[in-house]
Write a structure and sequence with these properties.
The complex is a heterodimer of chains A (181) and B (218).
Chain A (H helix, E strand, L loop, with lengths): L1 E6 L6 H15 L3 E6 L13 H4 L11 H10 L2 E9 L2 E2 L1 H8 L5 E8 L2 E6 L6 E7 L6 H17 L4 E6 L4 H9 L2
Parallel strand pairs in A: 1-2, 1-3, 3-7, 7-8
Antiparallel strand pairs in A: 3-4, 5-6
Helix pairs in contact in A: 1-6
Chain B lengths: L1 E6 L8 H13 L6 E6 L8 H9 L2 E7 L7 H9 L11 E7 L9 H13 L3 E8 L10 H21 L4 H8 L6 H22 L14
Helix pairs in contact in B: 1-5, 5-6
Classes of the chains: A alpha/beta (181), B alpha/beta (218).
Chain lengths: 181, 218
């Protein structure tokens, strides 16, 4: 299995160290682990122009690292988004990155369980998992709100939310959740 | 009454958020003495100096944004992060939100609306409601009569707000309709949006045959 770790930490921190440990365990278990450090990448926020759907289908008009985000997301089996919780939600670094992968889906709509969602552009999409680092003001309700939103986002990204974990949990537990089906 | 508005749309003055806000504002300004100031936050990232000033000084603040992947656009999350040092700085602030989405059902906006309500508490402001509206991508292809109805409801919501200082729950409910689509609605709406909005748009750009292109492989 190929696991993509999307590191949404704004600076080198304990979260980096924790992730490195988890990645080490995932590799040791025989899986491929790759990391994207968002703070070292260069990508503009999505401007909502829809050109990636209606003008250059599948490609964003911005020529920046959004291209890497799309390519890496699509080619992994599980995208583990690791992020500090800031003001009750994963970092803007992460949200801006997710907004930039919409070229991977198609504008057409379909009925998914009685609701309108977008259709696939590609055959296969990765599962998504969240590893969240709580802030001083993060409470259980925040984690619930985030989980709910990501469950829905996963549907629109042709994915599913495999788990939501807190970085306080032992690295072995995180690695186990990642590699187990 | 003075109303401050932050339009968080990445499309700034050219998007549906701006259009809907325009009708709300028009209604709001019908009352003598009412005034409004609007900022487009995408222009002020990443420091959001003007928005922070607005947050500190405002009596009533409406933050509006389109739904991007089931949540606020990344640039609006940047804005919220920039407000972190302002927690408790304006405890009298009446804070409202407006979330509009392209999907036909308003239900899609409810999850981030829950986040917004929590955000108001986090900032120690008074949460005064969220205007939630689905079906906005369709505004460009819907029959004019339907579009006018949406616009006039935003106008009325603004007018009542301008008089009473409250978001009228009855108008909010009407705006939010349909919260979900029936099975019959789904069967009607989906092919219509696909053909008239998306395929029509691609056709105009001469790329309909590339619609399902896979530039990143299979």
């Amino acid at each position: 299995m190929k696991v993509l770790f999307i590191n949404g930490s704004g600076n080198a921190s304990e979260l980096d160290a924790y992730m490195a440990t988890v990645m080490g365990l995932v590799s040791k278990a025989g899986h491929e682990a790759k990391e994207l450090v968002l703070r070292d990448m260069n990508y503009s926020p999505c401007r909502g122009c829809f050109n990636c759907w209606v003008k250059t289908p599948g490609l964003c008009v911005f020529k920046d690292d959004g291209d890497i985000l799309c390519r890496e997301f699509l080619s992994c089996d599980l995208a583990v988004i690791t992020s500090p919780v800031i003001m009750g939600y994963p970092a803007a670094l992460v949200k801006n990155a997710l907004d930039r992968i919409i070229p991977l889906i198609h504008p057409h709509l379909e009925d998914v369980g009685g609701e309108v969602h977008h259709v696939k552009r590609y055959k296969k999409y990765p599962a998504i998992a969240l590893m969240l680092e709580k802030a001083g003001d993060t409470d259980d309700e925040d984690i619930e709100i985030i989980s709910e939103i990501f469950q829905r986002a996963a549907i629109n990204l042709q994915s599913w939310l495999k788990f939501v974990m807190l970085t306080g949990s032992p690295a072995e537990e995180a690695s186990h959740a990642i590699v187990n089906n | 009454m003075r109303l401050s508005i932050i339009n968080g749309s990445p499309r700034a003055t050219t998007g549906n958020t701006e259009k809907l806000l325009g009708h709300f504002i028009k209604g709001f300004l019908e009352k003598d003495g009412n005034s409004v100031e609007v900022l487009h936050s995408i222009k002020h990232r990443p420091d959001f100096i003007k928005e922070k000033e607005m947050f500190r000084d405002a009596e009533r603040l409406l933050i509006a944004f389109p739904l991007y992947i089931d949540a606020m656009p990344g640039s609006v999350k940047e804005l919220f992060e920039s407000f972190e040092p302002l927690k408790g700085e304006n405890t009298g602030l009446k804070l409202m939100f407006m979330v509009q989405c392209g999907f036909p059902e308003t239900h899609h906006t409810r999850f981030v609306a829950r986040y917004c309500e929590k955000l108001a508490r986090r900032l120690e402001c008074e949460f005064c409601g969220s205007i939630c509206k689905g079906g906005c991508e369709g505004l460009t292809v819907q029959p004019p009569a339907l579009v006018d109805k949406v616009f006039s409801r935003f106008h009325d919501l603004g007018a009542v707000y301008g008089e009473t200082g409250e978001l009228d729950p009855v108008i909010l409910g009407k705006l939010a309709h349909p919260e979900h689509l029936t099975a019959d609605n789904l069967k009607q709406v989906i092919p219509m949006v696909n053909a008239f909005l998306w395929d029509g748009w691609m056709k105009k750009n001469n790329v309909l045959e590339k619609s399902f292109d896979k530039p990143y492989g299979d």
